[in-house]
Amino acid sequence: MTDLELAKIISEGAGKILLELRATGLFEGKALGKVGDRMANEFIMTALRETRPDDAVLSEEEKDNADRLSAERVWIVDPLDGTREYGECRTDWAVHIALSIGGKPAIGAVALPGLGQVLLSEPQPLPEIAPKLRVLVSRTRPAKEALAVAEALNAELVPMGSAGAKAMAVLRGEADIYLHTGGQYEWDNCAPAAVALAAGLHATRADGSPLVYNNADPYLPDLLICQKELAPKVLEALAKVPA
């Protein structure tokens, strides 16, 4: 089984667990998110231990192990990206399964269980750019930089939940630009970045520098995903935003 096939199977399995848990009606809101995080993480960690025992793992829901820093292959996972949205019975949440090789986002699967879809790090057709650009922003905390860029580009705002859902919205043709500057961790964007890059999208830090993974500090605060022809315009507009 290839790494990509494995990532797909694990993301689908975790998504199924989360959907089935929510359907029981035993938990709601934050309690549902907490239990879902734990159950999905247990499934993912067990699957990786059994199928890739020699690889390191960085998971949002596990205590970090510094041994990963000397590993070439590191699985970077977020068992439930968008806990709030999951607990609110929305569809804009995701499961992230990524493999970083040599610090690069090499393999990725982003499951959108609420939509019955898994997007993988493989070549795929890109949607057309909308005549009026659409910029994704947080449902609850839209960053000033994204708002400023949207204004500079005369773009429409598209509020959405999890990082994975927003990143995949660009690939799904629901929006054109995902600019995040409000703080993230490696597990928030490694799988989305891998999928975006494989599809031929632009995926970098907000200053245009490459995304590098498996760092001692997993804090990776910003991200830009868009079609390549839009990247210079976004970066130029962002550079003009007051600090």
From TrEMBL:
Q: For Mg(2+), which residues are the binding ones?
A: 60, 78, 80-81, 188
Keywords of this entry = Magnesium, Metal-binding
Q: Which SUPFAM superfamilies match?
A: Carbohydrate phosphatase
Q: What single Pfam family name could you report for this chain, choosing any that match? A: Inositol_P
What GO biological process terms are annotated to this protein in UniProt?
Answer: 3'-phosphoadenosine 5'-phosphosulfate metabolic process; sulfate assimilation
> What Gene Ontology molecular-function terms does this entry list?
3'(2'),5'-bisphosphate nucleotidase activity; metal ion binding
Cofactor(s), names only, from the UniProt record: Mg(2+)
Indicate what this protein is called per its UniProt record: Inositol-1-monophosphatase/3'(2'),5'-bisphosphate nucleotidase
Q: Which organism is it from?
A: Acidocella aminolytica 101 = DSM 11237
